[in-house]
Design a protein that fits this description.
- The complex is a heterodimer.
- Chain A is α/β, with parallel strands linked by helices.
- Chain A contains ten helices and eight strands.
- Chain A has a six-stranded mixed sheet with strand order 1-7-8-4-3-2, sandwiched between helices. Chain A has a two-stranded antiparallel sheet with strand order 5-6.
- In chain A, helix 2 runs parallel beside helix 7.
- The radius of gyration of chain A is 19 Å and the shape is globular.
- Chain A starts with 9 loop residues before the first strand and ends in a 21-residue tail after the last helix.
- Chain B is α/β, with parallel strands linked by helices.
- Chain B folds into two domains: 197 residues, Thiamin diphosphate (ThDP)-binding fold, Pyr/PP domains (Rossmann fold), CATH 3.40.50.970; 129 residues, Rossmann fold.
- In chain B, helix 1 runs parallel beside helix 7 and helix 3 packs parallel to helix 4.
- The chains are: A alpha/beta, B alpha/beta.
- At the A-B interface, helix 5 and helix 6 of A face helix 3, helix 4 and helix 5 of B.
Chain lengths: 346, 340
């Protein structure tokens, strides 16, 4: 098991990655902060609404992992694809799925990003390149292979990022997908968010290979271990992987060392981990770390950040109000979209 | 007109669709015949790699989850894959990708995503033992979001496969190993070689339309794939006894042409269902239930079913022939139905 002190970024060979502490240009530097904060506030509000008892379904939350989502997805365009897992909200928001559409989906509304047919584990919007989130662990890796294959066959410079957890790397689907992705040199970034636990089971009790990044060598694929609490480290690793993929250099496996603040799902009391461990990770909170950096070396002052933070609160507030007032689908809407409504091609 | 076997007709369908649409491609184990490869386990994709190249007739690792999953991913993002599993039995390796992914993407996304893919899968007992033998169409008729076709003639094989490639939904195409035909590379012992005159001009066979293979007055026999041919033999045999059978080949199981069956029952009032899928919850169970719900007063006798017994397919030919419906079992069931 990794603790918070050992999650510094290293390359596949184990060498530390050259620390680059230069912030990106201002719009991006602040944009990444805003996106991370949107995810945090979204997840906090979801948790509240859930406890309040007004929201149906289940939740698999991603707060604590915001730097992974934003660092990887911030630079992608709408024509780049993302396939994620049962813990999708951070990735969807970072990819540009409407926050209104997300809240509406959580409430099972007609205006949800999946019209109420998907729910918490299937959010997405192909209009912004976010394919439906996948609640079968590892099931999205072969799908990413197919998306990568489509991009390569169509000679496009786009990429696809597949997000999954440490647990998914023990799935056969991961192995079959990763092997083919490497074999065919597909423009795929396999982004493993290693948050230490598959539900309640520590990763270390599920696999003899302690560094998930090391598994890449079995497929002939480059990999990096990345500090998943540091959005700049993630973004730098993402840039390397994305550029390689766009240039036809094939896939990369990124092991992002991170931590989910919440339990696995709604009923998880987190008895398998200590409060001390949680506090140690909270001390390296990705949003707090980045905020400090923006103030210290980013030339941003407190007032600017406060204004941005107020704007994010307003975005969330607006989306929640919208979702609460939004109409339910008709029950009979359940009978449509089983088959594609557009018929067959001419 | 060209006389073709089913294998040739399927190949012709694939080639035509690949010529008209650059987003159509094949992937699967050993689908290419470049460098001494097979061109498909049963030769269906032979010669295609020479025309379309190794990228569009794409050999894969032995990774069924990958084959199905890559088809799903490619289909969602603009391609029209025709995936190939060497034996239908291997579909079970890829069940998640078919039942949880392919079938549900359109629905879960609220209709924003489509998955226009075809999964081809050979079925049928052919003395290869229990894991290269099953007819598991019934499984896939139980997954809303999938379509299921099962051509039994070369004409239908070409027309249905072309329709499946153009369909915007995932379609599973079941092909019978004993029906591919004896002009292929791999001649199956005991196989039939149904050939059709294939028109030179393009044609499609729409999904959801049954074919009346033989008109008759006394019994409606509904049978698919190899059993459609056995039912035709049985009908010829029964004709000698003065029994007139109407034989209907459903051709597609999802969507199912119930109307064709009920229309026939208006005339015959007796229904015999024959399939190589196993008895319990085979697709015939659904047809029988549907007829009971919607047309029971048309019937002069209980619905009869002849299906593979509920056992794994045994190897020994004497046992295999026993468990899979024979012409004798079909004719006997028909005679009992007339006595009922």
């Amino acid at each position: 098991m990794h603790d918070v002190d050992t999650c510094k970024s290293t390359t596949h060979s184990g060498r530390p990655v050259l620390e680059v502490r230069r912030l990106p240009e201002r719009a991006k530097a602040l944009g990444m902060y805003e996106r991370m904060l949107e995810i945090r506030k979204y997840e906090e509000r979801i948790y509240f609404l859930f406890l309040e008892g007004t929201m149906p379904g289940t939740i698999h939350q991603s707060h604590g992992q915001e730097a992974c989502a934003v660092g990887l997805l911030y630079d992608l365009g709408r024509d780049d694809f993302m396939v994620t897992s049962h813990r999708p909200a951070g990735h969807d928001i970072a990819k540009g799925v409407s926050i209104r559409g997300m809240f509406c989906e959580m409430y099972g509304r007609k205006a949800g990003c999946c019209q109420g047919k998907g729910g918490a584990m299937h959010t997405g919007d192909i209009a912004v390149g976010a394919l439906p989130a996948n609640a079968i662990v590892g099931g999205n890796v072969p799908i990413a292979a197919g998306v990568g294959l489509a991009l390569k066959m169509r000679k496009m410079r786009n990429v696809v990022i597949a997000f999954f957890g440490d647990g998914a790397t023990n799935e056969g689907a991961f192995h079959e997908g990763a092997n083919a992705i490497a074999l065919w040199g597909l423009p795929v970034i396999l982004a493993c968010e290693n948050n230490l636990y598959g539900a309640s089971t520590p990763y270390a009790k599920t696999c003899k290979v302690s560094r998930i990044a090391d598994r890449a060598s079995a497929y002939g694929m480059p990999s990096e271990v990345v500090d998943g609490q540091d959005v700049l480290s993630v973004n730098e690793a993402a840039t390397r992987a994305i550029e390689r993929a766009r240039d036809g250099g094939g896939p990369t496996l990124l092991e992002l060392k991170t931590y989910r603040y919440g339990g696995h799902s709604r009923s998880d009391a987190r008895a398998y981990r200590t409060r001390e461990e949680e506090a140690a990770w909270a001390a390296r909170d990705p949003i707090a770390l980045y905020r400090k950096m923006l103030l210290e070396v980013g030339g941003v002052d407190e007032a600017q950040l406060k204004a941005l933070e107020a704007r994010v609160e307003q975005t969330i507030e607006d989306a929640v109000s919208y979702a609460k007032a939004s109409p339910d689908p008709a029950p009979e809407d359940a009978l449509t979209d089983v088959y594609w409504a557009g018929g067959s091609r001419p | 007109m060209t006389v073709m076997t089913i294998a040739e007709a399927l190949r012709s369908a694939i080639a035509e669709e690949m010529r008209r649409d650059p987003t159509v491609f094949c992937l699967g184990e050993d689908v290419s015949d470049l460098d001494g490869g097979y061109g498909g386990a049963f030769g269906v994709t032979r010669n295609l790699a020479k025309e379309f190249g190794a990228e569009r007739i794409l050999n894969t690792p032995i990774s069924e989850i990958l084959i199905a999953g890559a088809a799903v991913g490619a289909a969602m993002t603009g391609m029209h894959p025709i995936a190939d599993l060497q034996y239908g039995d291997f579909l079970f390796c890829a069940m998640d990708q078919l039942a949880n992914q392919a079938a549900k993407m359109s629905y879960m996304s609220g209709g924003k995503v489509k998955v226009p893919m075809v999964m081809r899968a050979p079925v049928g007992a052919t003395t290869r033992g229990a894991q290269h033998a099953q007819s598991m169409e019934g499984f896939f008729t139980h997954v809303p979001g999938l379509k299921v076709i099962c051509p039994s003639t070369a004409y239908d094989a070409k027309g249905l496969l072309k329709s499946a490639v153009r369909d915007e939904n995932p379609v599973i195409c079941f092909e019978h190993k004993l029906l591919y035909g004896n002009m292929g590379v791999r001649v199956e012992r005991g196989g039939l070689s149904p050939v059709s005159d294939i028109p030179d001009e393009e044609y499609l066979v729409p999904l959801g339309q049954a074919a009346v293979r033989r008109e008759g007055r006394d019994i409606t026999v509904v049978a698919n794939l190899l059993m459609a041919h056995r039912a035709m033999e049985a009908a010829s045999e029964l004709e000698k006894e003065g029994v007139s059978c109407e034989v209907i080949d459903p051709r597609t199981l999802i969507p199912f042409d119930y109307e064709a069956v009920i229309h026939s029952l208006e005339k015959t009032s007796r229904l015999l269902i024959v399939h190589e899928d196993t008895y319990t919850n085979g697709w015939g169970a659904q047809l029988a239930a549907y007829v009971a719900e919607h047309a029971i007063y048309m019937l002069d006798a209980p619905v009869a079913r002849v299906a593979t017994y509920d056992v794994p397919i045994p190897f020994a030919p004497v046992m295999e022939n026993f468990v899979v419906p024979s012409m004798g079992r079909i004719t006997e069931a028909a005679r009992q139905l007339l006595r009922a």
